Fold:
Amino acid sequence: MKNLGYYNGRCDEIENVLIPMYDRACFFGDGIYDATCSRNHRIFALDEHVDRFFSSAELLAIDLPCTKQELKDLLNDLVKKMDSGENFVYFQATRGGGPVRNHTFTEGAKANLWVNMFHKPMMDIYKKITLITLEDTRFFHCNIKTINLIPAVVAAEKAKQAGCFEAVLHRSGRVTEGSHSNVHIIKDGTLITAPLDNLILPGIARKHIIKACGVLGIPVEERPYQVEDLFAADEILVSSASTMCLSAEELDGKSVGGKAPELLKKLQDYLMEEFLNETAE
Ligand code: PLP
Structure:
């Protein structure tokens, strides 16, 4: 298949998969999701993404219709149907309910399970990116991967309009994360990244970066930092499942980073090798 849509057991090319209007995604954005990528039809870091999916569901009391193992089996089966081995692998669950629109939950209703896959080659991890900063106008549940993404969508679009790859969000100067990524800096040989709280998503790529730093002997500080620290950083890193660990050369039109190229390459090489090994044929 060139792309794939799945909804509650029905699977077809996405253009042919219709969703009931009463799905709570339509009325309330009442759902959670997760996303990763595949290579050679092997899904990267699947256990971790499925664990986070279940934890997002639990935090919103969404009753998933399957076990973790059943979900992994389903995703592994579906990815094999794809023509390409390199895909974006997306799954989401919306709270069960309907057909009447009602804010409150429908007792005992199991969630609806969605899957979407399409061909997407991995980005070149060594390519430099450009960024803008924007005030973070999202809510205070950013640790949950919900499908309520309006401020993130608007921020990503503003970055695109500015000719940039990503928007770095901050709350009154304190850097939180990107519109669809985590953001980190390297300063004097140390990786600094925002702490895990309700202001950021616990990114899987972030976790892999921290683990890699441990192996490579790079100290890590998980603590708040400010927009001015971005400008003063030796490197600015942006991470997500599909970008892994990109570095920036420009922020708000000013030159940034490029001051710790060897350390950066060591980290990127390690992450790339891990990805290639885990998704080898
Ligand atoms: N932060 C936000 C707001 C995101 O949307 C994402 C990815 O979608 C990330 C961080 C990175 O998370 P991960 O590394 O698990 O892809």
